[in-house]
Amino acid sequence: MYRLSKLRFGFPIGLFFWLLIDGTVSQVFSVQLFRTPSTMVSHLVVLWLVCGAIFEADSALSMPLARWAAVAGAVFDLYYTGIFGLYVFIFPLVIYMTRRLVSWIRPNFLSGLLVYFIDITVVEALGYLASRAMHLNDASGNAFLVNTLGPTLAFNLAMFVILYFPIRWVYNWLK
């Protein structure tokens, strides 16, 4: 079924679009997002991937989301972080977790918000732990929770609330 749908081409185009928008939001709103001591990190790529997993649960489509997540992670690593390998593993892990969570709950707006909350927490926490392990970050755990994780969750959950229904409309149109 996936082979015959517009989603076969629409999903990667949307993924590339959200990769570009992610960087654009970070650049254009850098004064507001990266104000010392707080940091809000935009994860719109994760939003697109998580919505793909949530909306896939509603249909008979079986998209290769983990592969696309790994490709998006590689592009994200090479273009945004400069450290290859971190998001190549984090993004597919998020897809795996999302699929597991969605198999236990009925996918709707509120459960999607909860799943996205968990996913963003995992993405940020694993990124923080990896940067601590590589000695790229010397912030304490408390500073990370207050200055990075909290504002990042607030920003990304607000983006989920704003973009959930338009993204759902795009997925339904592509199916």
TrEMBL record:
<protein>
    <submittedName>
        <fullName>Rod shape-determining protein MreD</fullName>
    </submittedName>
</protein>
<comment type="similarity">
    <text>Belongs to the MreD family.</text>
</comment>
<keyword id="KW-0812">Transmembrane</keyword>
<keyword id="KW-1003">Cell membrane</keyword>
<keyword id="KW-0472">Membrane</keyword>
<keyword id="KW-1133">Transmembrane helix</keyword>
<feature type="transmembrane region" description="Helical">
    <location>
        <begin position="40"/>
        <end position="57"/>
    </location>
</feature>
<feature type="transmembrane region" description="Helical">
    <location>
        <begin position="109"/>
        <end position="131"/>
    </location>
</feature>
<feature type="transmembrane region" description="Helical">
    <location>
        <begin position="143"/>
        <end position="167"/>
    </location>
</feature>
<feature type="transmembrane region" description="Helical">
    <location>
        <begin position="78"/>
        <end position="97"/>
    </location>
</feature>
<dbReference type="GO" id="GO:0008360">
    <property type="term" value="P:regulation of cell shape"/>
</dbReference>
<keyword id="KW-0133">Cell shape</keyword>
<dbReference type="GO" id="GO:0005886">
    <property type="term" value="C:plasma membrane"/>
</dbReference>
<dbReference type="InterPro" id="IPR007227">
    <property type="entry name" value="Cell_shape_determining_MreD"/>
</dbReference>
<dbReference type="Pfam" id="PF04093">
    <property type="entry name" value="MreD"/>
</dbReference>
